[in-house]
Amino acid sequence: MRLGHIGALFLVLSLAACAADRIHSSYQIYPTRVPSSATSFSKVSTEHSDILKASYEDEAQAPIRLTASDGTGLAMESLRVRTVIRGPIAFTELKMAFHNPRGREIEGRFEIVLPDDASVARLAMKIGSRWQDAEVVSRRRGQEVYESFLHKQVDPVLLETSVGNRFRARVYPIPAKGDKEIILSYTEELPASGDYRLVVAGLPMVRELDVDIHHGSKREQFVKHNFVGKSDIVVPVENATNVAVNANGLVMMRWVPEQKDSADVPRRVSVLVDSSASAAGVYGQQVRAVSALAEELVAAHGEGVEFTVACFDHEVSTVFRGLAKDYGPSESDVLLRHGALGATNLEAALAWARTQPGRLLLVGDGIATTKNRAWTELGRGMGPAGPERVDVLALASASHHSLLVDLAQQGGKNPGVVLSPTDAPKQWVAQMGQGAAAKVSLAVPGATWVWPESVRALRPGEAVTVFAKFDGSAKSDLRTIRMEELRGDEKREFELKLVPAHTALVEREWAEVQIARLLELQQRHRTDVRQALIESLSHRFRIITPATSFLMLESESDYSAFGIDRENSGSILVVDATGLRTVGGNTSSSRDWQVEALVREPFERSGRGAASSDGSASIA
Predict the structure, then answer these.
(1) pLDDT, tens digit, for every residue of 498-509?
(2) 72-87, pLDDT tens digit by residue?
(3) DSSP string spanning 487-533?
């Protein structure tokens, strides 16, 4: 594509899916931590076959890079990082500049890896002397525009995601002897530990790294020249947990519920690995996770732990049966060579699971690829012949969380947990060795509404995020948030510190939660109900979903020519010297209407279903 001949850039984002000196004592340089995709353990790193080693190397790539069509990387001239953290929410803006040393225009491939829970909020590229932002449109409309440019024999720029929140884009033109500048910003909810992690491990030399991180009353600021990313940069953040953020009466609360210690040591573990087509993108990670799990089970509970591994797609294949201490590289190779292909035969998987005594760990996403069925059958329980407890590990970004929660809570004789892919294998084993929390009901006195009203399958130490809306005098009198946890007849009351946050930032987090819930309901019940609402929320809050795309055109006349509405799009969050602010977009609509619409729409089905007391929905 040549901008001199045509007037458009096209960007589609589809979801399926250092050795620096310490500058401040409050930030640290840590080894990169990606347990689900790059876990290191001795047996695998030294003995695995070429095919498994290749699966490691394929994922051990630089977190940000722009390569020419011949595969050579372009030098990153600068990386400017601006981050604002309010309570558990972090907003990060990356401004990157890459240099083309060649004496001609070239095409490149841009690639970036974001944190697991990150959501892209903005994508912009510099065209000539001005910045042009991508627009959110329905995926179908984006594809129509894309095809129209292809018919004109125009090279579009295509941005897409792969597994692990990795985004890829074709970029053209990169000017001769010039720079290509790109801005990408994203939001994320910080982990329960409260650490903010800037992913830079593996980054080739950056001529200038400029970092400025605001969190509360603190600020971490430094500039490094000729920076090489040998480790991630981690900033411990105060008030990231057991805190509430208030944005004009919309409150986001996060805390770690109290859980009683109760041992539930696994002595016999059966692992059921999803090897169907839906797991293809994370299959290598799943294989490594199983191997790491075996090693950590031995370390935590001794060499007598019985261990069975099977994979399932259209049939169930047993890979290993013996002791966890004997599960090694050759068994991992067998599992990896099986591959991830075909449909999911749930009947066969369920039948196999019912025959397994002891503990069951499902490594999969809950997606049924055949017979219009899901894991809800397993989630209803498997009777006295089934496993003692079912735990779930989902590495795929498109996982059906509520289905997996049902499975963990009801699939075995005792409740289990849904393990986090961002935790280390040692943490998985520790959580599998503790009793799971029962259902916890939640209440926020004075709030107009609370969502969710209950949480289940909590991991020990897991943080809970809850939203509530306050109106009238309750909104104006907010100083602290009083919470109530109810476990059966037991009631616990406590208060959360309230900190201010940008309204648009909190609303965006709320919209993201609701969109995710709507998408899951669609997939769970195989219906397109509320599709228009999903697209509307995505457009208003600039959130990319499987139903929406980013589209960038060079001029306003191009947008008009394709009937793309720019006037009613959401504002763009940016970072300046004063912190977060919004630019552009339509700010005339009522924010109260937006928030109220979000809480009602996902769960009111007007004759087609009803909301349950725990915030779930059914479709008649």
Answers:
(1) 988 999 999 999
(2) 889 999 999 999 999 9
(3) ETTEEEEEEEEEEE--HHHHHHHHHHHHHHHHHHHHHHHT--TTHHH
- Residues of the chain by 3-state class (helix, strand, coil), percent to 5: 25, 35, 40
Say if CB 289 and CB 362 are below 8 A apart.
no
- Angstrom distance (rounded) from CA 23 to CA 219: 12
For residue 387, is the peptide bond before it cis, meaning its omega torsion is within 30 degrees of 0? no
Q: Encode pLDDT of 556-611 as tens digits.
A: 787 888 888 787 778 899 998 888 999 886 654 434 444 554 544 443 333 333 33
Q: How many CB atoms lie within 10 A of CB 612?
A: 12
Structure tokens of 544? Answer: 């990319």
Q: What is the pLDDT of residue 14?
A: 39
Cα–Cα distance for residue pair 147/518, rounded to 1 Å: 29
Say if CB 44 and CB 287 are below 8 A apart: no
In this structure, how many other beta carbons lie within 10 angstroms of the beta carbon of residue 136?
A: 22
> Residue 455 to residues 46, 402, 485, 492, 510: CA-CA distances in angstroms?
42, 10, 10, 15, 17
Q: pLDDT > 90: what percent of the chain?
A: 30
Rounded Cα gap, residues 462 and 338, in angstroms: 34
C-alpha–C-alpha distance, residues 64 and 83, integer Å: 17
Nearest to 132, CA basis, from 578, 559, 508, 421: 559
Q: Is the dihedral of CA 242, 436, 444, 592 positive or negative?
A: positive
- Which of 91, 96, 117, 113 is closest to 237 using CA atoms? 91
Give the model confidence (pLDDT) of 458-484 as tens digits: 777 788 899 998 988 778 778 888 888
DSSP state of 484: E
d(CA 75, CA 67): 9
The per-residue pLDDT for 48 is 42
| pTM of the predicted model as reported, rounded to 2 decimal places | 0.78
Q: What's the Cα-to-Cα distance from 509 to each of 24, 307, 378, 492, rounded to whole Å?
A: 30, 40, 31, 27
d(CA 176, CA 560): 31
